[in-house]
Amino acid sequence: MQMQSSCSLPRPKSPPMARSSIIPSSLSDVLVFTAGAFLALLIFLGLYSFLSPTPIPNRLFSFSPSFSSTSSHIDDTYDPPDETFYDDPTLTYTIDKSISNWDEKRRHWLKLHPSFSGGRERILMVSGSQPYPCRSYHGDHLLLRSLKNKADYCRLHGIELFYNTALLNPSMNFFWAKIPVIRAAMLAHPEADWIWWVDSDAIFTDMEFSLPLDRYRAHNLVLHGWPELVYKKKSWCSLNAGVFLIRNCQWSFDFMDEWASMGPQSPDYEKWGKLQTSTFKDKMFPNSDDQSGLVYLILTGRGGWRDKIYLENEYYFQGYFAEIVGRLENISARYIEEERQGPAVLRRRHAERVFASYAKEMNVQLGKQKGADTGPTGWRRPFVTHFTGCQPCSGDRNKVYSADNCTLGMYKALNFADDQVLRIYGFRHASLVSADVQPLPFDYPRSEE
Amino acid sequence: MQMQSSCSLPRPKSPPMARSSIIPSSLSDVLVFTAGAFLALLIFLGLYSFLSPTPIPNRLFSFSPSFSSTSSHIDDTYDPPDETFYDDPTLTYTIDKSISNWDEKRRHWLKLHPSFSGGRERILMVSGSQPYPCRSYHGDHLLLRSLKNKADYCRLHGIELFYNTALLNPSMNFFWAKIPVIRAAMLAHPEADWIWWVDSDAIFTDMEFSLPLDRYRAHNLVLHGWPELVYKKKSWCSLNAGVFLIRNCQWSFDFMDEWASMGPQSPDYEKWGKLQTSTFKDKMFPNSDDQSGLVYLILTGRGGWRDKIYLENEYYFQGYFAEIVGRLENISARYIEEERQGPAVLRRRHAERVFASYAKEMNVQLGKQKGADTGPTGWRRPFVTHFTGCQPCSGDRNKVYSADNCTLGMYKALNFADDQVLRIYGFRHASLVSADVQPLPFDYPRSEE
């Protein structure tokens, strides 16, 4: 690896180590002192460059030698020839074959690629949709806007996003399709500490919010759900399997093997269908599904997985759209009011790259306000609004919801989110249901008083 | 700024500086030497932490104090309170008002945000499409796949992507709509050295290729085009205005003001329509358009802009789809053959984050092969394949092209690109026209011999 110029200082000259008999003793003390100083610096620089390389952007491949980049920096795209798990012919990306010792394999890879070690935890967001057009009129357009929404969130938060449109295992379709994708992503991204699966119909409606990862340090799988609904109500809806965080570790590979064994490609598929249907009285269709399967594993404790599964419900890790969309106008108005009444810093224009600083300021402001809570009675922006049951692509929505409720609701949520991004570019939507945008005056919204 | 933990080592204890008279002289030498060592380390750590802050990922805003991130590092999202251009009430994001002294304003902002200075040049890719569903059946699905394609390219190359779906100036629609977006993006991203506008119907078909930015160091605007077609043929198609690089500088703001003055919101719109139509005999419609306007400025030298405009044609900075799509199967087969015959490193599985290293290896391999050129007779992957004239969203394609040619062509290009990404996840398409994917065996494609 080449050294980053800011890390590699010119090496000092070799220190004089012997004291000459003709040198006076005070001067010899000075020489010895200086020798110690130089040697310490040499050792320190050597150790430091070995232990703490600094992560910096990829140096890109050049079209031809004459077009090579002139800036020199540590190349974190360098892949040493040392053998890693990638060189093991028995390791596959497909779900049919188990993986073992992943933690060790990953650790070894990270040791060879130290620029990816340390610092904050890395998240790879993964989402996806079908490889052919949607049946419903708005379907693909909503998917497009939803992908843009995810890309916006990831750009603001320095998170990588992989959007997949390939069915990796032809038998594992619909909601089962994500498991092979997540597995392949873990192998392709050993630097990622977490994979964050987000369904295509889940929209980020609070661009300022970051996952409180410290909360999950003792767990490997995080979903939105309520233990009392699992254990007391035995409801298949006690959690939502459309948005989850899963740690990139051996436990997760083993867990996904068990989870996938309930899927359509498994010889036990029918058995699981019957078991889930008999266990969950509110399950709406007879076939085994990923969500009921998860609830089953938690409810019964089968396999011992539940100790590492965190059911989050203190914020909208994912929020049921029907209890959110009707409140979005009010939430939007309350935030504008906070910005109007609050300190000037809330209205200050700024670069997108310093977004997080201003998110922090807003958080401080909201912390002073009553009712600025997350949840159905609060007016804090919901983190994620999930249009579960709306099926915008196929149009086969749950008949409990009207088309308007779903489609219009999605546009509102998308515009609500877009406003938070467009703000940085000097604009906002004329309303949550309008595609039209308006320029924001200086010191908005105080300038509108 | 807080210090990155890997940069701040535990401070050593205070060194003993005086030599006691009861300590033997050899031991006293040791003490003096050690004292020198400690003092040097103290001084070095102090100077280093002061002079060399290291850029690292954003520290994210926490939901509440109890959920704060435990890792401490330099916060490059910090925005000092010092006044910048953002605090100037006369500066607007909208296109109707000119900006002046942008280079100085940007320089000042960068000085206050040193983590964004230096290193390789930063690019922000900008693209977009309309805020309502497409008229044609495949339209939005192709836009979705195209956005995914751009997101893939940007993820592989460490480039940020902003996809816009808002019409910022209601009068500047269709091809004019990009100018207000680019302008707003420059203001929102002062850290970006270049804005790379890429039309929604332009697909990245060589994931390994990086822009040779050194080539453009003396220019501010880069487009694909041919000077001879500008000056000799006087063709409105002598360049393509759907893909370009524009430097984030004062020249570009001034240029965009002039360029936009030919647009529908301008009182000179009709005059420009007549002027362009009379100048370019092959112009296909009477209204002023952005592309003809650009050619006009280069042809006539009006405004002196052309000295800073680079017409690139030595590679497919953007490539005309009709001369590309028929060759994609062959190109794909040639690359597979190179990987099969070439050194093992070309077939080695690897993490996505070290993609660039392997791109470099392939580039070396291709450099040895005859015919591995870019252009209509070579078999090098085209960098960008642009379906100009296909209008996948409205369906109002140029009748010279069949629907198949356009739609099928786009799917082929998208799958061709997707194969390069899916490879990293262990899969590839069954064919360029198939949505089905297959797992790749170890040592593919040599394993298929």
TrEMBL record, chains A, B:
Q: Does the keyword Transferase apply?
A: yes
One of the record's GO cellular component terms = Golgi membrane
UniProt keyword annotation of Glycoprotein present: yes
Any idea where this protein resides?
A: Golgi apparatus membrane
Spans through the membrane: 30-51
Main localization of the protein described in the UniProt heading: Golgi
One Pfam family of this chain: Glyco_transf_34
* Membrane topology of the entry: Single-pass type II membrane protein
Protein origin, superkingdom: Eukaryota
Recall the GO molecular function terms of this protein's record.
galactosyltransferase activity
Its keywords, alphabetically, are: Glycoprotein, Glycosyltransferase, Golgi apparatus, Membrane, Signal-anchor, Transferase, Transmembrane, Transmembrane helix
Query: Which PANTHER family has this protein been placed in?
Result: GLYCOSYLTRANSFERASE 7-RELATED, XYLOGLUCAN 6-XYLOSYLTRANSFERASE 5-RELATED-RELATED
What does the UniProt record say this protein does?
Probable glycosyltransferase that may be involved in the biosynthesis of xyloglucan.
Instruction: Report the family membership.
Output: Belongs to the glycosyltransferase 34 family.
Q: What is this protein called?
A: Galactosyl transferase GMA12/MNN10 family protein
Name the species this protein comes from.
Rhynchospora pubera
